Fold this sequence. Notes:
Elements: H1 3-18, H2 25-30, E1 35-42, E2 46-47, H3 51-60, E3 77-78, E4 83-89, H4 90-121, E5 127-129, H5 139-148, E6 162-164, H6 166-172, H7 175-183, E7 192-196, H8 199-208, E8 212-216, H9 220-229, E9 235-239, E10 257-259, H10 262-265, E11 272-278, E12 288-289
Parallel strand pairs: 5-10, 6-7, 7-8, 8-9, 9-10
Antiparallel strand pairs: 1-4, 1-11, 2-3, 11-12
Helix pairs in contact: 1-3, 3-4, 4-5, 6-7
Amino acid sequence: MGLLEKGLEADLARFFEEDDLQGNAYYLRELPETAVECQLKIKSDLILCGLPYFVAAFNYLGGNLKYEAFKKYEGKKLAKGEIIPFSLPFSIALTGERIALNLLQRGSAVATFTGKFTDKALPHNVKILDTRKTTPGLRSLEKYAVRVGGGFNHRFSQADVWMIKDNHKTFFGGLKPAWDFFQKMHTHYQGIVVEIHSIDEFKLAIELGVKHVMLDNFSLEGIKKAIDFKKDGMTIEISGGVNLENCEQYFIKGVDAISIGALTHSAPHIDLSMKIKNLYTDVGKDSYEF
């Protein structure tokens, strides 16, 4: 068992409990364990992502799939109609396919959508970042998929990097008292990112020694004006209102990164399916799609 599979055990237990794995012991006992040929069918043009999760789902049930056999497909652009073959006992293929496909479809959707942004951003040396706007319970998968799609992870939790947002400033009474609060955390190697809402606030951030700023919902003119004040060693992140149709206008020299919540909360659906074929009898000689 690989380290990732071990790390996914608790999640997989929860996923299969949701799918009522324990609901009918007689049915589970009676499912044939005959080996079947399985085909993972690609039904959309996509970046395939999540195969470690796909493999782990079947292996959680006692399958013996080796990720090395699938590794060459992970992160690859595949075309509609391509097929990835493998074999499993019928009982495990049938019981695990929906969880495995759900995870693979979600990962592939996020990676594919992220890839559309990163393909545009790469020539401009602008990083595409995710956010914490993830599906509850699937943050690990979705942030993994952003990386596979060529993007970068922002932070996994509130405490990975301190981030001063509008609600902090409202509560503490402005940027400076909020900045002072987080300085008191005494986390020497932990950075602080400040969400900025105006040029005046950007100038104050410079006075305070802020190194990492996020310009929230700035106009293009406002972004360019802020860049004029940018100091050496500072990073400027853009957030708010950036989509596939308008992102290229934000690839401005001096912009280091763009964070896009839609990577994880609005990735368009992609389509995958799995077919099986009985290898040893005439029964089930035709393949059927799950």
